[in-house]
Amino acid sequence: MLPITVDDVRLFAHVLGATIWVGGQLIFSTLVPTLRRLGPDVLRPVARQLTRLLWIGFAVLIVTGLWNVVAVDLARQSSAYRATLMVKLAVVALSGGAAFIHTRVAEPRAKAVWGATSGMTALLALLLGVVLAG
Ligand code: HEM
């Protein structure tokens, strides 16, 4: 069997964080209509519990992302690689920021717009991550 390297563990943890942050938002967004139909007091506690898990996933992404940056040694990477990473970090910041605002705004339309923004930028960060890993 192939040996499991430290790099494998690093990328495993980063991808695990991504499955929670991206997958969690994607799946929850499809469940909202069903949760609403189950009654007025169902959506909020489910959303609150999921939010805790999503922020843990995001924290894992930040910590393992910094580990990635150290491991890939940016000085040895092309300017195109560094530019892609900068764009990815801006997209990650927008994804986290939009998610935070989404949890704070009460107006349904604003909540939907910020929620969708967080989800779409999370998907874009995922794509840019795969591009970086090559
Ligand atoms: C929403 C947040 C994020 C998502 C969804 C995400 C997703 C990913 C994915 C899927 C990969 C490819 C892993 C592979 O193919 O093995 C990756 C790689 C990478 N990510 Fe992220 N990431 C996020 C946040 C971050 C942050 C905050 C940083 C830096 C602080 C970062 C830095 C990197 C680097 C440098 C790589 C390349 C690693 C390598 O080639 O060894 N990511 N990311």
SS summary, helix count: 4
Instruction: Name the helix and strand elements from N-terminus to C-terminus, one letter apiece.
Output: HHHH
Strand proportion, as a percent range, falls in: under 5%
Count of domain modules: 1
List of distinct ligands in this structure: protoporphyrin IX containing FE
SS class? mainly alpha
Distance between the termini: 24 Å
What's the alpha carbon Rg, rounded to whole Å?
A: 17 Å
Mean pLDDT: 96
- The geometry reads as elongated
The total beta strand count reads 0
Helix fraction, binned, reads over 70%
How would you characterize the largest beta sheet?
none
* Uncertain parts: none
Characterize the structure shown:
There is one protein chain. This protein is mostly helical. It has one domain. The protein is built from four helices and no strands. Helix 1 runs antiparallel to helix 2. The structure holds protoporphyrin IX containing FE. Protoporphyrin IX containing FE binds next to helix 1, helix 2, helix 3 and helix 4.
How would you summarize the topology of this molecule?
Layout lengths: L5 H32 L5 H30 L6 H26 L3 H26 L1
Helix pairs in contact: 1-2, 1-4, 3-4
The site of protoporphyrin IX containing FE has 25 residues, from helix 1, helix 2, helix 3 and helix 4.
In short:
It contains four helices and no strands. It has helices at 6-37, 43-72, 79-104, 108-133.
Short key terms for the protein model shown above:
single chain; about 130 residues; mainly alpha; 4 helices; about 85% helix; binds protoporphyrin IX containing FE
